[in-house]
Design a protein that fits this description.
Number of strands: 0
Shape: elongated
Number of helices: 8
Structural class: mainly alpha
Strand content: under 5%
Order of helices and strands: HHHHHHHH
Radius of gyration: 34 Å
Largest sheet: none
Helix content: over 70%
Length: 165
């Protein structure tokens, strides 16, 4: 980073910028990098907003945005510094996210393989599905038998109405 651009920053901003260096981000986990990403984004948005507000206020007196930029170069430089820092943190966050997703995927696949059963043992534990030719089994008296009888009779009534036409 150009030392002239870093000279535009105050002490707190320099400390925040230094947190984005490779050695400083190395011990951070995904959550820590995500939190750093949010702080850097807020700082970049702050200086970008200041730059835009100040530039738009000077447009009337200078006659254009290009002419107003020269008087507002400090905020533009600060925004540029944090844009580069945000780029570094975003790349690191992407790497950690990819690693986390790969680890989670392998963990889920291993769990799925451990719970897999094959063949007749799986079919024997399966409950009756109520498919063709099988009656549903009701374990509690919550109206299931009555509901099934009602459904059958309603179907029979519909069919009888169609047949009568």
């Amino acid at each position: 980073m150009d030392k002239r651009l870093l000279a535009q920053l105050n002490d707190a901003d320099v400390m925040l910028w230094r947190e984005t260096e490779r050695d400083a981000m190395a011990p951070l986990d995904e959550d820590g990098v995500s939190e750093l990403h949010n702080r850097i984004r807020r700082a970049r948005d702050k200086y970008t907003g200041q730059y835009r507000r100040e530039a738009s206020a000077r447009v009337a007196e200078t006659g254009g945005r290009g002419k107003a930029r020269a008087a507002n170069s400090r905020n533009a430089a600060r925004a540029e510094v944090f844009e580069e820092a945000l780029n570094r943190v975003s790349r690191r966050l992407a790497v950690l996210s990819r690693q986390s997703a790969a680890d989670l995927r392998t963990e889920r696949l291993a769990a799925a393989k451990a719970n897999r059963t094959v063949g007749p043992a799986r079919a024997a534990t399966k409950e009756p599905s109520g498919g063709q030719g099988q009656a549903r089994v009701h374990r509690q008296t919550t109206g299931g038998q009555k509901r099934d009888a009602s459904t059958r009779s309603a179907g029979a009534r519909r069919q009888a109405g169609r047949d009568a036409r």
